[in-house]
Amino acid sequence: DISASGVIGSGVQSKRDLAAEIASVLAFSATRNSDRVGLILFSSEVEQYVPARKGRSHVFRLIRDILFFEPSLQGTSCGRALHFLNHVFPRRAIVFFISDFIDTGFERALKVTNQKHDLVAIHISDPSESRLPPAGWVTMEDAETGELVEINTNDPSTRERYESAARNLRESRRSLLRRAGLDLIEAETGRPYLMVLKKFFEQRIRARG
Questions:
Q1: Any residues with CB less than 8 A from the CB of 24 and at least 6 apart, and which?
Q2: What's the whole-model pTM score?
Q3: What is the C-alpha separation between 190 and 85, in angstroms, rounded?
Q4: Which of 191, 185, 188 minimizes the C-alpha distance to 128?
Q5: pLDDT in tens, 165-206
């Protein structure tokens, strides 16, 4: 997911930076296992597709695209990305769907794709999406729509409403992914993720005997 919401980052790392790191780690892991690796970059449309191949030079090409590709659109359409995936990958594959999932109406597409492939969701987030620091009056902009809203972050009730809405959204997203039958990895900017990935794969190995 290379939509505009990926530029959010309350520290030195943005959500897109974190997504790129995780995608790169997974790509290198796959090539060490002699697996083919492909790439789909999407916003509100599929913007880049690299067919699956083997080899380190191919993986380096993927990483370059992940890090430096500039999207032409701002929004997010998980459904269109999933439909495209099902079209270009007719054979079963392990798919890591890396996104902040700021979208609606794609639950059926998730279920269809998870029937065709082994689909793993990696949810990328930033601390600023869950809690507000008391910083006075601030103007917040929706990265994908450009909508502006002015709020008083010193107001405890404002912070509580923001954090409550964030909790509800997070639980709604988890519920959607569970209903679709997906495994879920959650990663947040500024926090180590390698142990999270390691634990996830260890659990999958145990679950599959």
A1: 62, 63, 66
A2: 0.88
A3: 30
A4: 188
A5: 889 988 998 999 989 999 999 999 989 999 999 998 888 888
